[in-house]
Design brief:
Helices cover 8% and strands 5% of the residues. The chain has five helices and five strands; from the N terminus they run αααβββαββα. The chain has helices spanning 5-11, 14-17, 26-33, 79-84, 406-413; strands at 48-52, 56-60, 72-76, 98-101, 122-124. Strands 3-1-2-4-5 form a five-stranded mixed sheet. β1 (48-52) and β2 (56-60) form a beta hairpin.
Length: 414
Amino acid sequence: MGYTRREVLSAASVAAVSPVLSSGSLLQKIANEKGNDANPDGQTDVIKSYLYDDGLLDLGTQVLQPDPKRTVIREFADYVGERAGEEENPDWCEAVSLARVAEPVRPASARRLFAGFTHLKSARISNLDTSACRDMSKMFDECYGLISLDISGFDTSACEDMSWMFSVCTELSLLDVSGFDTSACQNMSGMFSNCSGLTSLDVSGFDTSACRDMSLMFALCSGLVSLDVSGFDTSTCEDMCLMFADCSKLASLDVSGFDTSACRDMRGMFSICSGLASLDVSGFDTSACKNMGVMFDRCYSLASLDVSGFDTSACQDMSGMFSNCSELASLDVSGFDTSSCQDMSGMFARCLSLESINLSGFDTSSCTDFKGMLYGCDSLTTFPEDVYWFDYSASEQTVDDLFIDPSAEEESES
């Protein structure tokens, strides 16, 4: 069964990522913020298109004529222009089973070119010249019936926006992007999100030096067993929200070389990376990060995690940050600067193996929510008495709220 992007992203929202939080609009909000139209220099073609009653969509230049042996049910004089402005995929998209670029075309944009073709099985696009395309966002978005796709001839050297390019292509088992030139790309948000059929993906050659947004880039790629991002240049990246969320089959992930000095959002960055036995984030520069909510939520297999060097002075949200890290026996957060933090709800919830936690240095004067902060931490050998001296003045809560099941609280309120 296929799902629209909004359904998929709603299912993968922070509420689903963590039983501690409910922020169902997060991914939808991020998705709605993405998109960029561009008009590169140089001669380009306005694409003309015909949709026939047998499911064939033909694309070509303005000289393209309809096939006299077929019945036209829809005609587009400026196909790319009409599609680029869409907020949602129109109903006619479901009628397309085969897309064919009938003659050589060089469009200025490939935004939403094949988006929403939920019954598309094949795309014959060897005649598509992408050398002038600065925008390829949502190009194959929600093509969840697509089984194979040959994009080996794509020239992506001019492309600045690849956000949601292959999002929700759930049936693809192979996708070769190894030849992509991504040196100009500034937005890779959701690029491969919910490509759940992929077991491997070669992005080792990606030049990400210009990329500012990697949020949800590999989110819901639940079939990936390997992913090499060790060469990524992340020095300009400001958003890594849910970047690897639900990459549940990854046993290893090398992000030790990531330069995160510009990153402001790490919400759910590794959430539901349940297969990771180790993760080296000790070199992360988090001085600019404002949101670390559910950052490591449901990293069930992590036995150790070094966050002792994290600069959290700017962080306003730590809700569910380590929730459900059930194998962690120790965690050093003694150096955390929490003076700006407004939400610590569920921060350590269900850390079942945690034996001790030093919260003596926590400044909670700005915190408005503590619910479930230590819920389910049943292995604590020493009660963290520091919580009695927390400053609860910004909230209407007490020390008892730290041990309440936050998910049960939400259910009773609803």
